[in-house]
Specification:
alpha+beta; 7 strands; elongated
Length: 157
């Protein structure tokens, strides 16, 4: 392949990657709606679907700050904000208690929103080393002009 062919092939492959990734994510979202995050295992590749864990976010920083000032003053910095490390750890615990966001004693904490887990986050592909090596070898052959530019399939991969 000459430089122009390499550039065009790279641009085409990046566009193809985005479209293929989008298609796989759509399939994963559809299966997740049926109740289970999918995992697919074609030979040499594992595709995993990741979902969000429950989390809590601050929608009213002033209310959250006031609540922390009253109950956890040692965790409020003098620049008048809740210490980030405390907030991260504390909200993780609050998320485990579900909706509405509440302290261990059941008190509703103002300024917080609860977000249930289970929503689609992403998919990842884990390609076995042997498969990676075969794909890289085929790709080098394509760039060298030994093999035609084509997507590898089943036994060709």
């Amino acid at each position: 392949m000459d430089r122009l062919e390499v550039i065009r092939a790279l641009a085409a492959c990046r566009a193809l990657e985005a479209v293929l990734h989008e298609a796989l994510e759509a399939d994963a979202r559809n299966e997740l709606e049926l109740g289970t995050p999918p995992t697919w295992r074609p030979p040499g590749i594992t595709v995993s679907c990741h979902v969000h864990q429950p989390w809590v976010s601050v929608y009213d920083p002033d209310a959250w700050l006031k609540w922390c000032q009253d109950r956890h003053p040692d965790q409020v910095e003098t620049l008048v904000r809740v210490r980030p490390a405390f907030q991260t750890a504390y909200l993780k615990g609050v998320a485990k208690r579900g909706s509405p966001p509440q302290a261990k004693d059941g008190e509703i904490i103002p300024g917080l929103d609860y977000h249930p887990g289970g929503g689609f986050r992403s998919i990842t592909l884990l390609v076995a080393e042997a498969m990676k090596t075969r794909l890289e070898d085929r790709s080098r052959e394509m760039v060298a002009g030994i093999r035609p530019l084509a997507l590898p399939g089943g036994d060709d991969a």
